[in-house]
Write a structure and sequence with these properties.
Layout: H1 11-17, E1 18-19, E2 22-24, E3 30-34, H2 43-61, H3 72-78, H4 83-93, H5 112-130, H6 136-147, E4 152-155, H7 161-168, E5 176-178, H8 180-186, H9 195-203, E6 211-215, H10 218-226, E7 231-235, H11 241-246, E8 251-253, E9 260-262, E10 269-270, H12 281-284, E11 291-296, H13 316-326, E12 330-334, H14 339-346, E13 352-355, E14 360-362, E15 368-370, H15 378-392, E16 399-402, E17 407-410, H16 419-432, E18 436-441, E19 444-449, H17 455-465, E20 473-479, H18 485-492, E21 500-504, E22 511-512, E23 516-518, H19 521-538
Parallel strand pairs: 2-9, 3-4, 3-6, 4-5, 6-7, 7-8, 11-12, 11-20, 12-13, 20-21, 21-23
Antiparallel strand pairs: 1-2, 10-22, 13-14, 14-15, 16-17, 17-19, 18-19
Helix pairs in contact: 2-5, 3-4, 4-5, 13-19, 15-16, 17-18
Length: about 550
């Protein structure tokens, strides 16, 4: 039974992506559109095919039953669901039991697969005969978001998604397509489960809280909300806008022509296209009366990635260059690690430290602050910690790490076949604690307070705390993980004294908002040595 779920994003998350009827693209990492009812008007074709198929079946096998109602039955039992889930939903509503059958069952055979296959034949016949009608407002919104630099995906429970996109002439507008074939291929659950949205966002390297979802069916809205999408727009095609709001839509419109796009998202580029920071030191720090301010990640940036997070030790050579730089400029280490753990591992008093992705901050003069609202989430993190430790106790290689303001589940040493189950436990735990959000890193999945705070905002706070005039200081952010993209986003914003982002990775296929790249922590050490030499040389 479909139940109303929690809201997709907090009010703060929604306010970052949506203001009245305007999408704010600057913080949007992706936009996911449902196909039928949002972009194309194949709903009448689907409804006709469903009615024809079920009426044939009922006339032959259940003549006492009333025929399929193209309005009530369609919207209640089949709209927005995978084809065979729609068959099951209608049969269950009528109290009819049929065997599942096999995927290759003859169309029309009295099995779940046979009826679903017959519906598909009828749909394709009507599609070929009638063509595809396109909703101009939906297509225009896709184009506007893409122009603003926001990647787009299309989702559909139909295995005919590609054929419909091609017939409509809009296949080239989407970076990712997740459809009925993916449901079978990857074992994804259909709507109202969040699987299709999570799959699309995963392929776009997007976190749900920075994603926009556009849906027309209550099952689709419920799925987008369950996925944790930051802004969910419902398109009312049935004349029942309250139903979409009831299931969590943040904005409901009759036509997407009413929705506008503002701003421009900081563009990402494949790492293979980024210049190496070692070859562009003078571009990164040209001098000219400006001072560098360094913001450095720990794991994978100052230290190599290791199997066990507890084994990540700062190399002596890196400690030497950090101490040298601390005497020349402001240096901060910003990490997902707990603040106390981070300070102990680095052990240099002259630095600033931001632990738990910036929730907990300490300075060289004894300064210390924890983001005040974060304390309200500690009971939920305590409960989630108990649940995760109990559920994952028997998974070999899985490590649950409690930080003050976050709960990390590391699966680097977990057998590949068990990883989906580990992720499922974390996702279920998050569902039981809607005040928390999921954040993904390299072979780690975290639960964090669902609030308007990340490493990018921690960077801004540190710059204000250090009284850094943007016209005087050049913030240089160096990091390797997806969580560092929030900080790269901040330094990429147009402003006086625009900063520099440097991503640490050897993965040429990865995309990043950074300006430059470095291959590994060894290259980071070389870059910092050269930067220290340059600062020393330029000093009067």
């Amino acid at each position: 039974m479909l139940e109303a779920g929690p809201q997709g994003g907090t009010e703060k998350n929604v306010s970052k992506l949506l203001a009245k009827n305007t999408l704010l693209s600057e913080d949007a990492e992706a936009a996911v559109f449902h196909l039928d009812g949002v972009l194309t008007r194949t709903q009448p074709v689907h409804a006709e095919a469903w009615k024809a198929m079920f009426d044939e079946f009922l006339a032959r096998h259940r003549p006492q039953e009333p025929p399929f109602d193209r309005d009530t039955d369609y919207h209640r039992h089949v709209d927005g669901k995978p084809r065979h889930d729609g068959v099951r939903g209608f049969l269950e509503a009528r109290g009819i039991e049929l065997p599942e059958g096999e995927p290759e069952d003859e169309p029309g055979r009295p099995t779940v697969y046979g009826l679903g296959n017959r519906k598909n034949v009828l749909f394709l016949e009507r599609l070929q005969r009638n063509g595809v009608e396109v909703y101009g407002g939906g297509v225009a919104l896709v184009r506007a978001l893409r122009k603003a630099g926001v990647p787009t995906a299309v989702v559909s429970s139909s295995s005919n998604c590609e054929a419909v996109l091609e017939a409509a002439g809009i296949a080239g507008l989407f970076d990712v397509r997740v459809d009925g074939r993916d449901l079978r291929r990857h074992g994804l659950a259909g709507k109202p489960a969040p699987d299709m949205f999570l799959e699309a966002l995963g392929r776009l390297d997007s976190t749900p809280r920075h994603a926009i979802a556009v849906e027309d069916a209550v099952a689709g809205v419920a799925a987008a909300v369950a996925a944790g999408c930051g802004a969910v727009i419902g398109v009312d095609r049935s004349g029942d806008p309250e139903a979409l709001r009831h299931y969590g839509a943040h904005l409901v419109v009759a036509d997407l022509a009413a929705v506008t796009v503002a701003g421009h998202r900081a563009a990402t580029k494949p790492v293979a296209e980024l210049p190496c920071a070692l070859d562009h030191l003078e571009d990164i720090y040209p001098g000219d009366h400006q001072e560098p301010a360094l913001f450095l990640d720990y794991d994978g940036t100052l230290t190599p990635i290791v199997e066990r997070p507890a084994d990540a030790v700062l190399p002596d050579a890196m400690a030497v260059v950090l101490r040298r730089l601390a005497g020349m400029c402001e240096v901060a280490v910003v990490s997902g690690r707990d603040l106390a753990d981070l300070r102990r591992r680095v052990g240099i008093e002259e630095l600033w430290y931001a632990g738990s992705h910036g929730f907990d901050i300490a300075g060289p003069g004894g300064e210390h602050t924890a983001y005040p609202e974060g304390r309200d989430y500690l009971p939920a993190l305590d409960d989630a910690e108990r649940a995760l430790r109990e559920a994952l106790a028997g998974v070999a290689g899985c490590e649950v790490e409690r930080k003050r303001f976050a709960l990390a589940t590391h699966y680097r040493r977990v057998a590949a076949g068990e990883v989906p189950a580990v992720e499922g436990v974390v996702e279920d735990t998050r569902a039981a604690h809607p005040e928390l959000r999921i954040s993904r890193g390299r072979q780690v999945i975290e639960l964090q307070p669902d609030m308007d705070w990340d490493q990018g905002r921690a960077l801004n706070w540190l710059m204000r705390a250090l009284d850094m005039d943007p016209a005087r200081f050049i913030p240089i952010v160096i990091g390797d993980d997806v969580t560092d993209e929030d900080a790269f986003r901040e330094v990429a914003r147009p402003r006086p004294g625009r900063g520099v982002g440097i991503v640490v990775t050897a993965d040429d296929g990865r995309s990043s908002r950074a300006d430059y790249c470095l291959a590994d922590p060894r290259a980071v050490g070389v870059f910092l040595e050269r930067l220290a030499d340059r600062i020393e040389r330029d000093r009067p």
